[in-house]
Amino acid sequence: MIILNLIGRSRLMAKERKKTFYITTPIYYASGALHIGHCYTTVCCDAIARFKRMDGFDVYYLTGTDEHGQKVQTAAAERGLDPQAFVDGLADRIKALWARMDISNDGFIRTTDAEHEKAVADIFTRLYEKGDIYKSKYTGKYCEPCESFWTESQLVDGKCPDCGREVKNAEEECYFLRVSKYADRVRKLLTETDFLQPESRVKEMVNNFIDKGLGDLAVTRTSFDWGIKVPFDPKHVIYVWIDALPNYITALGYGAGDKSKFDKYWPCDMHVMAKEIVRFHSIIWPTILMALDIPLPKRVYGHGWILFDGDKMSKSKGNVVDPFILTDRYGVDALRYYLLRAMPFGDDMSYTNEALLSAINNDVVNDLGNLVRRTLAMSRQYFDGKVTKPAAGAMTADDKEFGERLTALVGEVRADMDKPLIGKALEKIFGCIDRANKYIDLNKPWALAKSGETERLNTVIYTLLEAIRIVANLLLPFLTKYPRRIFEGGLGLPVPADFKDCAFGKTKSFATSEIEPILNRLDIKKELAELEKIADEQNGGKEKKTGAGGKTEEKPEVKKEISIDDFFETDLRVVVIEKCEKVEKAKKLLCSTVFDGERRRTIVSGIANAYKPEELVGKTAALVANLKPAKLCGIVSEGMLLCAVGEDGTPRLIHPDGKAGDKIC
Ligand code: ME8
């Protein structure tokens, strides 16, 4: 009895000693539907969380919604809704998206949670009492979409350094966080430790912010009221970042109620986000924690962007790709695979439907799906599904080499996941899948069956089933459906909870069955057309892109007849291009200053693929002069330059023979 108790207690202690791992996504603005950019971060964190859980860690995975601030208040007002009702609806939709994507989050924080609001108000008061928050007057620039204040020197070409959009002058009384006091400690944190990753982000932070001097940060606003009020001065609302960043500790109970989770999981092992909010996580968040005397997170990881047509996919730009549509058509595993494999974790990646569909066909259907289908079918055909472990002596040198590679795989994948290089980890797993497919071609089981070499055939099929078992085991954190089906349905084995059996030769015998394929091969041309149709329907046929994010070839269309009067409604003029430059962050755009005979205008055109900016200076062009101005990548374009567009889609500017100001008719 005593011995049993001792064993029980030591087991319990071992359980208590389990290493913890706390990982977070940003809390997403509850201001619109999320897109595959948000899915990217959340799926990456999910793969890491699932991997760590299976690797023996006690994981806490947090995501949530950022529900206060001007942006949310404006979005609610535009829909005629009360902000709380508006964010309730969006939070439900976001939770439904994470359920669809099989996200295994342990917590979901909303900044409108009462405990969070109380904790943030207390944090604010403590910082004020300590002197790290003080009241003063703010004069400077404000970017409304980013809800960020900037000094003149931080602007890039007079625009917001984060999103490239116009900023407004702002002057108001507000509270400031004394960031300057902690600037040296923050610099050391960034430059002398591996707190911020990847390395390229450190340079961005040091060059763009720290070297320019860290000023104190305005942390309250009086121009809107949808937010947490400053407890001792309620006309001020706590500005979004000071409300949002502490979610990472309030979700664990810090500052309100039971803080056992905080004691257990803090400091955070890994905050993950895209590069545009690395500044807040690597400079402002450590400042707040230093001021509160709370240990700092261990790692902040800023990944790249998913671009769409060369531009960041974003809710406010409307160029979103809808994950519900993609998962409806291709399943969760396929979208998770594409996101996890295709993006170089750290750099940007361009999304195209073509790339998604090719990855599904080539890797998921062809390589993985075919390996499983062929092997299970052969095991059924030749051995009625019963395949036993061969004697060691039955293995050839090539079998052994393959077995050793499979046994080593878990260590290689672990090393990549620790960095974290998720795409590389998947590449290694798929390398073994490729090797297994080649093993089939090399050993030709059908020929062995024909010549009656049953023993060799058993060894070959066993080797393949072991390969499938190991890769399916390692795929469990990445793909949530098919690998489970391989175990439960195909191999007739329980789904593993860890990686302990990821060594070749562990299985004594298999009793296999055939399973539903992961997906049938896609007809890419047909799918592209379908996605484009959905995108058009969603968009009421107004624009070319959105929805499922499709692109089509443009066919020259015959437009309806118009009268000469209709034609003369268009003011066409000759202009001279005086200046021309590339638009940062938009690969296709050039920004020109043109003279129209009366004044200079700024014109943004999608011609960067066809011209170098300097080639155009001094040339004439045909301008649609009475077109309503439109904002492109934050720049107001005051007209449009006419182009001839051939079959290859390359635009060629029309150069009229005339002088600036001449009418074209
Ligand atoms: O910034 N490519 O919320 P948000 C890759 N509430 N990742 C993308 C992406 C893209 N095109 N678009 C969005 C906020 N993301 C704040 C955060 S945290 C204390 C407060 C992902 O809804 C990426 O993780 O604008 C990015 O950092 C985040 O969504 C921004 O989400």
Notes on the protein architecture:
Strand 1 (20-29), helix 2 and strand 2 form a beta-alpha-beta unit. The protein is an alpha/beta fold and 665 residues long. The strands form eight sheets. Strands 3-2-1-11-12-7 form a six-stranded parallel beta sheet, sandwiched between helices. 43% of the residues lie in helices and 18% in strands. Residues 26-29, 37-38, 40-41, 66, 244-245, 247, 273-274, 276-277, 305-306, 312-314 line the site of ligand ME8. Ligand ME8 binds next to strand 1, helix 2 and strand 11.
Structural key phrases:
five-stranded antiparallel sheet; single chain; 22 helices; 18% strand; alpha/beta; 26 strands; binds ligand ME8; six-stranded parallel sheet; globular
Instruction: Give the percentage of residues in beta strands.
Output: 15-25%
Mean pLDDT: 89
Strand order of the largest sheet: 3-2-1-11-12-7
Largest sheet, described in full?
Answer: 6 strands, parallel
Binned, the helix content reads 40-55%
The best one-word shape is globular
- Helix-strand category: alpha/beta
Spans where pLDDT lies below 50 across 5 or more residues? 541-547, 550-558
Provide the list of bound ligands, each named once. ligand ME8
Number of strands: 26
Total of helices: 22
Radius of gyration: 29 Å
End-to-end Cα distance: 102 Å
